[in-house]
Design brief:
Blueprint: H1 4-14, E1 21-26, H2 31-45, E2 50-53, E3 63-68, E4 74-78, H3 86-96, H4 105-113, E5 118-124, H5 131-144, E6 148-154, H6 159-164, E7 172-175, E8 178-182, H7 187-194, H8 198-207, E9 212-217, H9 221-231, E10 237-240, H10 265-278, E11 282-284, E12 289-293, E13 302-306, E14 311-319, H11 345-348, E15 356-359, H12 364-374, E16 379-382
Parallel strand pairs: 1-2, 4-6, 5-6, 9-10, 9-14, 10-11, 15-16
Antiparallel strand pairs: 1-3, 3-4, 5-7, 7-8, 12-13, 13-14
Length: 383
């Protein structure tokens, strides 16, 4: 199942485990179950710190849990975590085995402080490039807080569930049996959504910020460029953004950025953030501006009010609010969003297998989407 190069890479990663882990599997004789057994045996054969227990009796089969040795709780993968999700599996193994995650300490502290019963189910497809962020965020939360339980479900292997729950877009997240959210979400966004005191704490942090020489509202490529130019002048610069990188994070392939032959949105966004942070810019994520209050006198300060109640002040404000998915604004579009109306053929296409679909848009993206879907669905109509 894994070629020699991938096995070699995986063995190197497993060498970073600091403590033993075990894989607790609930297997069956389906094709996916047989492939899962082979995958788990391969992993066990690459490290003496990993053991396999096939006595699992979970309701979803085939599935397996990545747990610390001596424990039964951890991240559960229902279906094969391959394709884009192979990295999610590797990270779950490393984090469970004691290898530290690359996240800010205050994020880990917020995860550990969550109190309540949080049972997450996240549906993904192996072709979805947006899913790994959500899968990895929920995996991290389950590994570092025993009150959080996470099941990662490959929609293709559990088609009956997908149909019953009317899932027509991935990633789709359920919390305690109810829809929690869909689309790409960062771990900070998820934690903020379930942590009832997060907004007040964020507002307090915002209010404590000193005045910026330049404050940029928006964290896409334009905002990042403005921040780098300003920070190189040696002045105090801040960025307030809902999600650093903006819509570019949702772009699968970028092949027209000068000097970069090809990359993808998440890599491009991460590179932008690294460059901006290199110049000491204060990046404030998960922040949505609600109002800009002009200075009352020449040379005075501009106030930017945030939706969480916080307020920032600056001598200069640059608005770079970016772009969003284009909507056609017809009746039913918002009502059926993620319930038949989708925006990513790569991520959501497999969920429409055998169905009649329509693609709205005749440009290059629309035609590419139609061609991609033609190999999956029953019929495609381009409008």
């Amino acid at each position: 199942m894994l070629d020699d190069a991938l096995k070699s890479q995986l063995q190197t990663y497993l060498g970073m485990l600091r403590q033993p882990i075990r894989l607790i599997a609930t297997l069956d004789e389906s094709e996916t179950g047989i492939e899962m057994r082979s995958l788990l045996q391969t992993i066990v054969g690459l490290s003496d710190k990993v053991s396999l227990d096939t006595s699992g009796a979970d309701a979803r089969a085939p599935s397996f849990v990545v747990a610390r040795d001596g424990e039964t709780q951890g991240v559960r993968f229902a279906g094969l975590p391959l394709g884009h999700e192979f990295t999610s599996l590797v990270l779950a193994l490393l984090w469970t085995g004691g290898h530290p995650p690359k996240v800010e300490q205050d994020v880990l502290d917020a995860i550990k402080a969550l109190d309540g019963d949080f049972n997450f189910e996240v549906y993904m497809s192996l072709s979805c490039h947006n899913c790994p962020d959500v899968v990895q965020a929920l995996s991290l939360m389950a590994i570092f807080n025993p009150k959080v339980k996470t099941v990662v479900i490959e929609g293709g292997a559990f088609q009956a569930e997908v149909t019953e729950r009317e899932i027509m877009a991935v990633p789709m997240v359920f919390l305690n049996g109810k829809v929690f959210g869909s689309g790409r979400m960062s771990v900070e966004e998820i934690v903020a959504k379930i942590d009832t005191g997060a907004a007040d704490r964020d507002a307090a942090k915002i209010n404590a910020k000193e005045t910026f020489d330049v404050l940029i509202v928006g964290g896409g490529p334009a905002g990042a460029a403005a921040a780098v130019y300003a920070a190189r002048k040696g002045i105090r610069v801040g960025i307030a953004a809902e999600r650093f990188g903006g819509q570019v994070n949702d772009t699968m392939a970028i092949e027209n950025y000068i000097s970069v032959l090809e990359t993808d949105g998440p890599k491009f966004g991460a590179a932008m953030e690294a460059q901006v942070r290199h110049y000491g810019v204060d990046i404030m994520n998960l922040q949505r501006a609600s109002k800009v209050v002009p200075a009352t006198a020449p040379g005075g300060l501009i106030q930017v009010q945030m939706e969480n109640g916080g307020e920032l002040s600056a001598r200069t404000v640059i608005l770079s609010t970016g772009a969003r998915w284009r909507n056609v604004n017809v009746p039913g579009e918002q009502r059926y969003k993620n319930k038949g109306v989708a925006y990513c053929p790569h991520c959501d296409g497999p969920l429409f297998k055998g169905k009649r679909t329509a693609v709205i848009g005749g440009g290059n993206s629309g035609i590419e989407a139609a061609i991609d879907l033609a190999g999956i669905v029953a019929h495609v109509t381009v409008i």
